[in-house]
């Protein structure tokens, strides 16, 4: 039976009384509160760039790996480790399972060739796990989501340009995950140095065809584009992290105290931490997860399904086009 | 800054940590809602019920608008499902509403198969979604979901009990769709009869093991109202798009000489309860149950039917996808092969028939030739005979002329014996007169 779409003068206009369709928003909100949310953030960067501190600052609690594990004598590992720690946090009735994935050892070796490999492997393994559950016959009501929603890449504040390692990593990983580059420990750069550095970085990203979050091609409409263009003009955010509070002008603020002044973390005149927090948590969190599930994951899935089809086709001696049907 | 929240006990693998200040992820539900608003919503209702129970009118009343529709014909051979999609908007919410009507349900003399086309329709929508889900390149988030989220089952207001058609149909549908039974045109029943009727219906449903949709009571915000409403099922409704002036307001009502039934008056009927439950409180839950329960069941059964198992080690990870594809290709291949076979057979038959006909034609020709030849032979024979007769005749004529000539000569010459003798010699003895 053919479907026809007719626009009917909606309720709430003229003499019509209220139907209550918009009550669905409240129903959705209720459902979301009941189910809670999941967020998986990965932090990548050399040792000493303040990754753990930044995570703790973002989530105002001890969520980083170091807070969980005994780090009495922190040794830089000889290879890259992937360490994942999960926390249940709650705010105003909204529950979230936050997983922070740390990558100690990245970029710390003398020879850092292929250091992106274990990270790439980890990210793909999460996609694989999700896919496996999705294709089960008896599958869970809610498939546990361990996919990496966002990868924060820490750029050391050299002030000049991106290093080959940075370019190589971001080039490869931006194809499989949302990359949010940040300039770490930005309190060592003056505002002019910072702006110059940012511009250089943006140029280099463009020159190398690296699409960091928010990717231009995924802007949904004009409004989206407008908002995201503003963000794209500001990245990478220059951040400073801290979990220490200090008294400033009669208020207790998060900051870093030095002899020449106190850097207020949440003061946008001092650093761009607040922009990063707003982007990741307050405005674009849902979008980051959406892009991960409807784009990055789907790309992985298509590749995997085609891979398998080819393999099976070869095994059966069939020409490949027999297996991949009209969908392609 | 916000006060510190005490975190709850952690689930597996996660520890609960308190927050030292306002982080801001409490905006997540808003972010989610905004995304959905931009995307729009979709809701599909199936109305099952006999002709004349006011299905279309009830839909019009529920959604406060006049849905277009041609008056349905009632002379169709089976039960047809007619579906129409409408775009409604209320404040910033855009809803794509699909209303599916069963045309001709209960009209047949033999109603044994009435439920079949309904089940088939529901399954077709599940199948379409499954196909999309199994595609290699898929677009699930922009897929127009046509799966039925709620089935309003219209019970005729007889006041006695459910018809066997009702029981059979609901039993066949209860594992496939959320059923909300309603008593249609309930202004035909008095209040006391209605109470008895509802009790009878409920007990019949229970004793026949029909699982109707239960309004969810796990969320404390709506648990109370939902459980109260569960006790009022089936809802006794009255629909009307006509407005009548009551006091100084215009209300939707049905006007009779003995009084006016007000649709939105809870003392008169359960319309308001239905609207509350179906739209204002549980629309999202109906959608979710359809996806997580009914669809999953369909999917599981369909895949098991095709011979898949989760525990098969070799089959992981993609036997599902690729074997589904392979099976489909195989099926298509078989279909093609069959088609080819049939075509070959047809061609063969045609050839054979052609040969037969040619053979027959040849025979006919031969026969014709034979007859022709016979005819010619006969003709020739006759001609020959004729010729010989002619020759004889000519010969005789000549002889006669010659004889007459001799006779006349003989008469002139006083008779010539030679001629006579010749004549004698020639003529028969009895002809000789001398």
From TrEMBL, chain A:
<dbReference type="InterPro" id="IPR030379">
    <property type="entry name" value="G_SEPTIN_dom"/>
</dbReference>
<comment type="similarity">
    <text>Belongs to the TRAFAC class TrmE-Era-EngA-EngB-Septin-like GTPase superfamily. Septin GTPase family.</text>
</comment>
<protein>
    <recommendedName>
        <fullName>Septin-type G domain-containing protein</fullName>
    </recommendedName>
</protein>
<keyword id="KW-0132">Cell division</keyword>
<dbReference type="GO" id="GO:0051301">
    <property type="term" value="P:cell division"/>
</dbReference>
<keyword id="KW-0342">GTP-binding</keyword>
<dbReference type="InterPro" id="IPR016491">
    <property type="entry name" value="Septin"/>
</dbReference>
<feature type="domain" description="Septin-type G">
    <location>
        <begin position="35"/>
        <end position="307"/>
    </location>
</feature>
<dbReference type="GO" id="GO:0005856">
    <property type="term" value="C:cytoskeleton"/>
</dbReference>
<keyword id="KW-0547">Nucleotide-binding</keyword>
<keyword id="KW-0963">Cytoplasm</keyword>
<dbReference type="GO" id="GO:0005525">
    <property type="term" value="F:GTP binding"/>
</dbReference>
<dbReference type="InterPro" id="IPR027417">
    <property type="entry name" value="P-loop_NTPase"/>
</dbReference>
<keyword id="KW-0131">Cell cycle</keyword>
<keyword id="KW-0206">Cytoskeleton</keyword>
<dbReference type="Pfam" id="PF00735">
    <property type="entry name" value="Septin"/>
</dbReference>
From TrEMBL, chain B:
<dbReference type="InterPro" id="IPR030379">
    <property type="entry name" value="G_SEPTIN_dom"/>
</dbReference>
<feature type="compositionally biased region" description="Low complexity">
    <location>
        <begin position="405"/>
        <end position="418"/>
    </location>
</feature>
<dbReference type="InterPro" id="IPR027417">
    <property type="entry name" value="P-loop_NTPase"/>
</dbReference>
<dbReference type="InterPro" id="IPR016491">
    <property type="entry name" value="Septin"/>
</dbReference>
<keyword id="KW-0342">GTP-binding</keyword>
<feature type="region of interest" description="Disordered">
    <location>
        <begin position="400"/>
        <end position="434"/>
    </location>
</feature>
<dbReference type="Pfam" id="PF00735">
    <property type="entry name" value="Septin"/>
</dbReference>
<comment type="similarity">
    <text>Belongs to the TRAFAC class TrmE-Era-EngA-EngB-Septin-like GTPase superfamily. Septin GTPase family.</text>
</comment>
<feature type="domain" description="Septin-type G">
    <location>
        <begin position="39"/>
        <end position="305"/>
    </location>
</feature>
<keyword id="KW-0175">Coiled coil</keyword>
<dbReference type="GO" id="GO:0005525">
    <property type="term" value="F:GTP binding"/>
</dbReference>
<protein>
    <recommendedName>
        <fullName>Septin</fullName>
    </recommendedName>
</protein>
<feature type="coiled-coil region">
    <location>
        <begin position="321"/>
        <end position="399"/>
    </location>
</feature>
<keyword id="KW-0547">Nucleotide-binding</keyword>
């Amino acid at each position: 039976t053919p479907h026809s779409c007719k626009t009917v003068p909606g309720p709430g206009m003229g003499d019509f009384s209220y139907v209550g369709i918009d009550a669905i928003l409240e129903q959705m909100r209720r459902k979301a509160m009941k189910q809670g949310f999941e967020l998986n953030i990965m932090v990548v960067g050399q040792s000493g760039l303040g990754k753990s501190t930044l995570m703790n600052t973002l989530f105002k609690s001890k969520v980083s790996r170091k807070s969980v594990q005994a780090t009495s004598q922190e040794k830089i590992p000889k290879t890259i480790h992937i360490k994942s720690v999960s926390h249940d946090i709650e705010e105003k009735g909204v529950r979230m399972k936050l997983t922070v994935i740390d990558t100690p050892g990245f970029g710390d070796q003398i020879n850092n060739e292929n250091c992106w490999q274990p990270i790439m492997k980890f990210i793909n393994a999460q996609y694989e796990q999700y896919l496996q559950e999705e294709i089960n016959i008896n599958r869970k009501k809610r498939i546990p989501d361990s996919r990496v929603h966002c990868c924060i890449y820490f750029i050391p504040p050299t002030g000049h340009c991106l290093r080959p390692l940075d370019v190589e990593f971001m080039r490869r990983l931006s194809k499989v995950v949302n990359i949010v580059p940040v300039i770490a420990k930005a309190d060592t750069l003056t505002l002019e140095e910072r702006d110059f550095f940012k511009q250089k970085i943006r140029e280099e990203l463009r020159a190398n065809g690296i699409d960091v979050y928010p990717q231009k091609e995924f802007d949904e409409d004009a409004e989206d584009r407008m908002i995201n263009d503003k963000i794209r003009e500001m990245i990478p955010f220059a951040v400073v992290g801290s979990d220490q509070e200090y008294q400033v002008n009669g208020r207790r603020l998060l900051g870093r105290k030095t002899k020449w002044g106190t850097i207020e973390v949440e003061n946008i005149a001092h650093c761009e931490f607040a922009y990063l927090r707003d982007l990741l948590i307050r405005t674009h969190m849902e979008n980051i997860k959406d892009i991960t599930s409807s784009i990055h994951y789907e790309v992985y899935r298509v590749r995997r399904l085609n891979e398998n089809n080819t393999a099976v086709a070869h095994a059966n001696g069939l020409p490949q086009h027999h297996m991949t049907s009209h969908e392609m | 800054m916000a006060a510190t929240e005490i975190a709850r006990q952690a689930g597996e693998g996660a520890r609960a940590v308190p927050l030292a200040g306002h982080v801001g992820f409490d905006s997540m539900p808003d972010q989610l809602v905004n995304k959905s608003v931009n995307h729009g919503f979709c809701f599909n209702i199936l109305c099952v019920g006999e002709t004349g129970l006011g299905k279309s009118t009830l839909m019009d009343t529920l959604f406060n608008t006049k849905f277009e529709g041609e008056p349905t014909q009632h002379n169709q051979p089976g039960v047809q499902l007619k579906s129409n999609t409408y775009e409604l908007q209320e404040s910033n919410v855009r809803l794509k509403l699909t209303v599916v009507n069963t045309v001709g349900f209960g009209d047949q003399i033999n109603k044994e198969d009435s439920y079949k086309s309904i089940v088939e329709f529901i399954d077709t929508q599940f199948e379409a979604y499954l196909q999309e889900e199994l595609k290699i390149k898929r677009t699930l988030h922009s897929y127009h979901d046509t799966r039925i989220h709620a089935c309003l089952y219209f019970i005729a207001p007889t006041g006695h009990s459910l018809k066997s058609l009702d029981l059979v149909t609901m039993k066949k549908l209860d594992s496939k769709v959320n059923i909300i039974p309603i008593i249609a045109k309930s202004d035909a029943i008095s209040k006391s009869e209605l109470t008895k009727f509802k009790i009878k219906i409920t007990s019949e449903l229970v004793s026949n093991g029909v699982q109707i949709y239960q309004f969810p009571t796990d969320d404390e915000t709506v648990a109370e109202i939902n459980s109260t409403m569960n006790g009022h099922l089936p809802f006794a409704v009255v629909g009307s798009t006509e407005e009548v002036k009551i006091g100084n307001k215009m209300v939707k009502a049905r006007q009779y000489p003995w009084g006016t039934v007000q649709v939105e008056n809870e003392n008169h009927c359960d319309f308001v309860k239905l609207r509350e439950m179906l739209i204002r409180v549980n629309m999202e839950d109906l959608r979710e149950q359809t996806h997580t329960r009914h669809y999953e069941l369909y999917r599981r059964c369909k895949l098991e039917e095709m011979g898949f198992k989760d525990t098969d080690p070799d089959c992981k990870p993609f036997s599902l996808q690729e074997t589904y594809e392979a099976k489909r290709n195989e099926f298509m291949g078989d279909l093609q092969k069959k088609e080819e076979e049939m075509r070959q057979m047809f061609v063969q038959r045609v050839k054979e028939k052609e040969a037969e006909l040619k053979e027959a034609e040849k025979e006919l020709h031969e026969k014709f030739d034979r007859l022709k030849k016979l005819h010619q032979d006969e003709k020739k024979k006759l001609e020959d005979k004729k010729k010989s007769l002619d020759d004889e005749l000519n010969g005789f004529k000549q002889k006669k002329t010659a004889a007459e000539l001799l006779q006349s000569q003989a008469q002139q010459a006083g008779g010539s014996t030679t001629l006579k003798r010749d004549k004698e010699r020639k003529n028969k003895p009895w002809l000789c007169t001398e």
